[in-house]
Amino acid sequence: MARFHQLRVTAVDQLTDDSVALTFDVPAALREEYRYEAGQHLAVRRFVDGTEIRRTYSICAPAPGPEVPEEPRTLRVGVRLVEGGAFSTYAMKEVVVGDELEVMTPAGRFTLEPAPGRYAAVVGGSGITPVLSIVTTLLSREPDATFCLIRSDRTAASTMFLEEVADLKDRWPDRFQLVTVLSREEQQSGLDSGRLDEERLGSLLPALLRVEEIVGWFLCGPFGLVQGAERTLRGLGVARQRIHEEIFHVDDGLAT
Ligand SMILES: Cc1cc2nc3c(=O)[nH]c(=O)nc-3n(C[C@H](O)[C@H](O)[C@H](O)COP(=O)(O)OP(=O)(O)OC[C@H]3O[C@@H](n4cnc5c(N)ncnc54)[C@H](O)[C@@H]3O)c2cc1C
Prior knowledge:
Layout: E1 4-16, E2 19-25, E3 41-48, E4 51-58, E5 74-80, H1 86-93, E6 100-104, E7 117-124, H2 128-141, E8 145-153, H3 162-171, E9 176-182, H4 198-208, E10 214-222, H5 223-235, E11 243-249
Parallel strand pairs: 7-8, 7-10, 8-9, 10-11
Antiparallel strand pairs: 1-2, 1-6, 2-5, 3-4, 3-6
């Protein structure tokens, strides 16, 4: 059963000007309860003047493997600041190492059990967070898997986990492919800027990969981006059961 426990913050890493990664220590007695699958998330809550503020954050670190029952020793999540947002402002500006936060045991079905095959993701903004866990878990455990990540953000400076994603390319140059589209910045190639809307994806995807060979699509980010990507994939003939979705926020546009 899902339960909250007080977990101690052991690291607060600034990722960009408007995002941080929080790492929580998991005491030995709670490790079994906090075992997670790649792509799952944690609810975190606090009380302000008696009112509960509860938000969900995806785990960015790879999932513990079956061969290491004593893990996870830590949990790491990425939080992007939402202007005026109650919890993200607190996470960005107030949380320090040593604080204790109420963290629920992992949940969520936006997951991937490593298996051979070709996989791909389309993510916007902080939607990279669970997909970083999914890609790292998959490629480190399954030698016969490949992953193509298409990510969109506003600018390079605002892109979360830039180094971690670059490391994936260094680690698995033949099995990991990355395409970054920046909506508010011209890239040097002049090709990958602008919005990752349906029209753009519809021409990008068939040029990048054999769409019909992808066994699992992972779409994550704001509602507009996820819905647009799903429509594009369905239009390209991708079966519904191959598409996995995680919506972070219901917006009214396609921006990240
Ligand atoms: C399954 C799931 C997983 C998630 N994982 C992550 C994650 O890994 N990293 C992460 O940073 N966030 C993630 N989120 C979003 C997160 O839960 C919060 O919604 C977000 O941090 C905003 O909370 P807040 O309290 O700061 O803002 P609030 O006080 O809830 O909202 C303030 C204002 O901002 C708007 N708003 C809320 N969320 C967003 C948003 N994402 N973008 C733009 N405007 C918004 C609201 O409509 C409101 O007007 C996830 C959400 C879900 C449902």
